[in-house]
Every structure is written in C-alpha cells, then in structure tokens.
Amino acid sequence: MKYKLLSRLDLPQDIKKLSLNQEEELCRELRQKIIETVAKNGGHLSSNLGAVELTVAIHRVFDSPKDKIVFDVGHQSYAHKLLTGRYGEFHTLRKKDGISGFTRPSESEHDACVSGHSSNSISIALGMAKAMKLSGDNHHAVAVIGDGAFTGGLAFEGLNNAGSSDTNIIVILNYNEMSISKNIGGIATYLSELRMQHNYKRFKTGAKKVLGAIPVLGQGIEKVISASKDGLKEKLLHSTMFEDFGFEFVGPVDGHNLEKLEAALRSAKEMNCPVLVQVNTVKGKGYAPAEAQPGEYHGVSGFNVETGEKPAVSSTYPDIFGMELARLATADERIVAITAAMKYGTGLNHFTGILKSRLFDVGIAEEHAVSFAAGLAAMGRIPVFSVYSSFLQRSYDELIHDISIPNLHAVIAICNAGIVGEDGETHQGIFDISFLTTIPNVTIYSPSSFKELKECLGKALYDDSGLVCVRFPKGSEEKDLALPDFESFGSGETLAVSYGRLSANAHKAAKSAGADFLKLTRVFPLQDADIEIIKRYRRVVVFEEVSRAGGIGEKIRLIAPQTEVVAIDGFVPAMTPCQAFELYGLSVEAMTEKLLENK
To answer: I want to staple 460 with a disulfide (CB 3.0 to 4.6 A). Which of 123, 199, 412, 468 is the partner?
Structure first.
C-alpha cells in the first residue's frame, strides 16, 4: 500500500488542514501501517487500532506539544507516533536503537512523558496542567486512559485531586470493554451501563431547557434539581460519577466518528475546567481477527497479515506454572489464585472448570491484589498472586505491611523475571531481587527449567512459610536442559555462580573456561551448602540478569570478598534478550572470556 498522506504531509501541523474525506483516508493509512509493522516487529495491535480516529481527532483539536497529550500505558500511541514525525523510522518500532513501543520524551517533544505502566496518566496530566496554570499558560493537559487502566486505584487518586482543581485538564476515557483480559468489577459494570446512554448529554441539556422555559416555577425547579443530591437529580439530570468528582462530563461519543469526536473535544477544550470525555471504541477496529479476539491480539510477537495466523509457540514458563498450579489446586481446595488483569500472560488461564471460582481477577490493581491475598491468607487459604516482575514493583508496601509483618503465608509467582526484550525499560524484570531481599523472612526461588519450576512451586506452597516468591522468565526453556546443582570442570580455583535461565549460559561458559559451576535454585536466603562451596574458591564470579545494586552477587560478596559480579547497571532499553546478554556480558562467549581472566 502506498501511504500518500503519511509520506507527504508535514505532521502534525498539516492534519488541521485536511478535509473530512482526507482525514478518513489518513485513518485507513494509519491502520494499515500499524498492522504491517506489528506483523513484522511484534507489539500492541488491538489497542492501537481502536484509538486511530481518537488520536487523529486529538491532534486536530489540540496543539501538541504546547498542549500536553499523556497516553496512559502508551500501548495505544502508535498512531500518535506516526502523526508526530516518526513515519520514516516507524519500521524500527521496538527494535534495538529504534523507536519505542511506548511514549518517550527523549524520542520526541510530542511525547509528554515516559509510559509503560498503567493508571498514572491523570496524575501526570494534572501536574502538567497545574504547572502551566502557575506559569500563566492556558494550554491544556490531556490524559488518554482506557477503561482497563481506569480500574487502577492510582487513576482514582488522580481523578479525586483533578476534579477539584482549577486547571485545564481533560481526561479522555477510552471505553472498549477490554484491558488485556476482559474487564471485571464495579467500575467496568458502571462504564458499560454508561456506554449505553447515547442520549445522556442531549437529555440533560434538554431537561434544563424545558425546565428553564417554565415561567418562574421552572427556573426554581431547575435550581433545586441542580443543587440536590437525591434521586430527583438522578432521574432528571442524571449526574454521573465523574461530575460528582467535580468534572464536567461529555459523552458517550462514538470513538470512530471523526466529526462527533472533534465536536466533543472542542466542546471540552472551550470549557477551560476539568472535563471528562467518554469515548466508545472497538478494540482491534479495522482488522477482523483483532476485532474478533482483541485479547489475543493485544500484544503479539508477529502474525500473517492475510490470515491473522500467529507463529506456533512452545510451552512457556507461565504455561507450565499455570498448569502445575491448577493440578495442585485441584487436589487442595485451600489454594486460590489472583491476577491483576493478566490471566493469560501469567498462566492462570489454566484455572478452568471447577477452579474458576478460586481464580480472582482484581483488575489492574497490584497493590490491592497483595492486600487481598493477605486477607485470604489470614483466613486459612494459600493465595498465589501471579504477576509480572515489573508490575510487582507497585506492591512493595503491601508486601511488607500486609504479608511480611503479620507473617502470613502467601506465594508470589513472578512472571517475566529478568530481561524481557522489546518492550524496553518499563517492562524489564530486573529489580525484583533488589527490593524483595530487603523484606525480612522472604524466600525466593529462581528455577532454571520447567522441572525445577514445578519443584519450587511445591516447596513454596507446602515447605516454606511467610512470603515466598518463585520467579521465572518470559518464554520457553532451553531444549533438553538438565543442569546439575554443582559441577567441577577441573579448576578448583574459579567458580561460576548463576541462577534461573542464565544458568545454562554459565554452565557452558564454565565448561569452556575450565572453571567450576554452581547453580542456585533457592537464591535467597542462601543455603548453607551453597555458602560452603562458595567459600572454598579463590575466585568467584556471579552472573545474573538483574540489577547489580541489591542483587545476589552483592549478598555473596559479603560472605566471600573474592566475588566478582557481572550484572546489569541502569535501565535496559528495547532489544532482544540475546542482544541484552551480549551487551551486559551475559552471553556464553562473554562469560567464558570473563572466567578466563587472570588465568
């Protein structure tokens, strides 16, 4: 397909000059370019396809970068990137040294903030709006948030503060009935009901006009109704929850009708006060397979554009974890599972049949998930919260306060631990070891194979007490992997230590370098037998795909000062795990070279 508009327009400036027909053609080009690129590079498809018209309308009405556009999570920002000067490099999306799959201010002045995690857009936009207000700047801050991210508590903290502010903040609630898994809970139900009220704004305005036209009495009734908090207001003027927060409310608006979208956004802009605009969209819009299965096409590694067929994948660590947990839960009714809107990504889709009643999806609310687990544990259940490493970061306080201090037994299954690849800095699972090891009485396992994962899960559930974490990587295990806990290759001088999937690289390197090898499975606290082995060596080299600061290598150095650590410093940008291993000295070749130093 030739991209006549995308390739020729000076964007975003020229978007304001387009006719309606040209805008619609631009939307078709945007969709095609997104589908074509994600099919090759992988990325977030459904969410981006659903937000095309909305993004075009935003750039028609607002003036970026003077108006600040804050995309929550950022997995709906591809059209925004294409409309803000990145068409020529869009083919590098999610590649090493390419453009990010999320918004990054270092990449463009049109990206208002770093994105990657959910529910923070309202708070960030409010801060920007308040800063502009203090400077006498009347431009707007626009937060674009999906109804999935809207289930996060942080969104309501921002909403509560923003509604009472004197700022030009506009919150665009993109309602599509999906986050990654189907939305659940009271907020989802409320928004679903609100979605059906297409005549809400017209009815409210009409009611005011009718009442106002009644001489004397009508105006008095209108004032009484407007001031009341009782059922009469609900019946005649129908106050929304958002208005009770202090926002003017516009919508619901058809999120794929450019004329209606622009009219609604212009109306919101002219109010110059906190406004919430509800936009109804279809996730995956314009690509039949994604429309039919929006969850399946939320995040993809690639696919055939013509058929929608995705590459076959082997069993993954989350799959093995989920199936083993389901097997154990079938035999033990005390076991319950918790997910924060990530059932498929964390393996809990295997909780089916009779186990469904013991799987709790709490929405995008990791803090709540941990406190909820504490309540379950206090009543004799064994809760297992399955969560990405990078999202567990949000729950640090609850892990300490609600699980560790009362010494309740709960299991955290940490998915996507270590390097995860193309999603970049916000998604790399490299900090869990650092913050978890600061919590008293925590136990952490890091299996190196599917077999070990099953064994570690069993120990976490039945052999250990208190807070127990089992961390495992994204993807599949190395074929025919069966590593020994310890193996001597004749050195007696140098010991290579590693854990998790990186153990395979360390084992190969130790063999090549003639060093000895130690694999840790329970990585914290260190076991006495492992400590005894480590202390025997003149030189110890620890390899780990986590942050150096607070990693296991630093703990080992406290008991064995001869220890050297090869780990990660700083944040890891988008690149494949293999590229990251090469960059940080964690490939087999780099490990071998390190072990051969000073021989």
So the answer is: 468
| 366 is an active site residue | yes
What is the reported pLDDT for 207?
Answer: 44
Concatenated DSSP letters for 234-286? HHHT---HHHHTT-EEEEEEETT-HHHHHHHHHHHHHH-S-EEEEEE--TTTT
Residue 574, CA atoms < 13 Å, CB-side half-sphere: 19
User: What pLDDT was estimated at residue 443?
Assistant: 98
Q: Is residue 262 flagged as an active site residue?
A: no
Domains 4-197+245-300 and 486-596 share a fold: yes
Return d(Cα 436, Cα 223) in angstroms, integer: 56
Q: Which three-class secondary structure state does DSSP give residue 295?
A: coil
Q: Which fold has domain 4-197+245-300?
A: Rossmann fold (3.40.50)
From CA 124, how far away is CA 158, in angstroms rounded?
Answer: 8
**The pLDDT of residue 178:** 55
Nearest of 587, 580, 417, 462 to residue 512 by alpha carbon: 587
pLDDT of 592 reads 97
- Say which of 283, 508, 539, 555 is annotated catalytic: 283
- AA identity, residue 219: Q
For residue 416, give both structure tokens. 């996507």
Domain 486-596 sits in CATH 3.40.50.920:
yes
Per-residue pLDDT at 157:
93
pTM for the model stands at 0.86
Tokens for 110, please give them. 């049109």
Q: Are strands 539-547 and 494-499 parallel, antiparallel or unpaired?
A: parallel
**500's tokens:** 């998790």
pLDDT along the chain (599 residues), means of 10: 87 93 95 94 92 96 96 93 94 93 94 92 95 96 93 91 94 78 52 49 47 51 43 46 89 93 95 94 91 84 86 88 96 96 92 92 94 97 97 96 97 96 91 97 96 97 98 84 89 93 96 96 96 96 96 96 96 93 96 90
**Nearest 5 degrees, angle CA 324-CA 328-CA 329?**
115
| CATH superfamily of domain region 317-471 | Thiamin diphosphate (ThDP)-binding fold, Pyr/PP domains (3.40.50.970)
Q: Which residues of 286-299 are buried (b: 16+ CB within 10 A; e: fewer)?
A: bbebbbeebbbbbb
What is the distance, to the nearest Å, from the Cα of residue 197 to the centroid of all Cα atoms in its chain? 30
Question: Which helix or strand (DSSP H or E) is residue 592 part of?
Answer: helix 588-596
User: Which one from 177, 366, 422, 477 is the annotated catalytic residue?
Assistant: 366
pLDDT, residue 302, reads 85
Q: What is the pLDDT of residue 262?
A: 95
285, 394, 539, 555: the active-site residue: 394
Note whether 145 and 174 are within 8 A (CB): yes
Query: Locate tokens 């960030």: which residue?
Result: 124
Determine the pLDDT at residue 180.
47
Q: Is 358 a catalytic residue?
A: no
What is d(CA 166, CA 141) in angstroms, rounded to the nearest whole number? 12
Q: Is 472 exposed, middle or buried (0-12, 13-18, 19+ CB in 10 A)?
A: buried
